[in-house]
Amino acid sequence: xxxxxxxxxxxxxxxxxxxxxxxxxxxxxxxxxxxxxxxxxxxxxxxxxxxxxxxxxxxxxxxxxxxxxxxxxxxxxxxxxxxxxxxxxxxxxxxxxxxxxxxxxxxxxxxxxxxxxxxxxxxxxxxxxxxxxxxxxxxxxxxxxxxxxxxxxxxxxxxxxxxxxxxxxxxxxxxxxxxxxxxxxxxxxxxxxxxxxxxxxxxxxxxxxxxxxxxxxxxxxxxxxxxxxxxxxxxxxxxxxxxxxxxxxxxxxxxxxxxxxxxxxxxxxxxxxxxxxxxxxxxxxxxxxxxxxxxxxxxxxxxxxxxxxxxxxxxxxxxxxxxxxxxxxxxxxxxxxxxxxxxxxxxxxxxxxxxxxxxxxxxxxxxxxxxxxxxxxxxxxxxxxxxxxxxxxxxxxxxxxxxxxxxxxxxxxxxxxxxxxxxxxxxxxxxxxxxxxxxxxxxxxxxxxxxxxxxxxxxxxxxxxxxxxxxxx
Length: 473
Known about the structure:
473 residues
């Protein structure tokens, strides 16, 4: 009897344990299902979020406006009336970069008067928020999210005095690798009369990490866009420069010539030009300081000034004085141009040379030593007119088979792999040999460029290179 009773109790106990285990297992399964469903839901939210973001970036003319689209998506996802994404700027301040709805300023400011919502939003975009100051600044400083379901009774909200009524706030810092990159904040439940819920707060905290991802993606696209714009600007500058270089070289019964220029970067600060001045021909070779687009723009400006001044040409000295006056007036202190001028008078069979801080002229006359002509004159745009003064000129008669070489310092200062310069001696020797061999101007220029290239080898070109060779018949 006792054994039967004990067996009955034991059986009941086992049944209870099994039932309890079944209940616990069911709860565990339900809990796992719930967690699984939540993860699926979150994954779906992330997928939708990235889809909206990619479409926004793909169709927006302004990459930065994609953050406004992001703000609208997050506001809809959380279910708030307005939302703002504050991004930490390089200067250490927070700034509103993405806004959805009529979002009120959350810090006291005397920079604007709170009147109409559109004015508030304009001011909000201009406002800089210091870390640690105001509601947004405190969140960035403490790295802690904020949940105020009943903002009407919160002293921090009462102090603001904004005309946009604030019933509730949810906010979270955006943290990447332990550092705050911004703050995301939502205002008021979308359903009137309903307080913001803990579930909405949890969703905001979750989605904050995805907004960081959005910032990164937008920055990448923005940089890509900037690079594309830069490439377009460089291409425009190249086309501009090519259009400014002469299409053909002048040739007549007195002389013929050849020119060549090669830039160290995408565009060059070197240039050459030929201008007819009555029955005379002006040949100029210039070198704007620096390289790339700034030098190219200075080159284009100088060329325009030269062409404008030749309309009222008096002399080479007068031309250079006027050029210096214009460039000094219109360029910054660190910008200047060196220039070499050769004026050929076909009627009187004379050549006049002038120089403004440029390399010397090489002149070769058969059966004579190489002459290096160095008229005095400062670089253009470097000194005010009263200090620059006049520019020396040298004039002489044309001789048969005489050659004049004009070049920029990118030729003589070209470097090899050991940082040794090509130098004047190599250039002089090769120029003499080419002239004595009765090479044409084109052949002389080609031989010099080939020699410089062979000397430098694989060493990157450090400066623009330009040559003009004139041969008299």
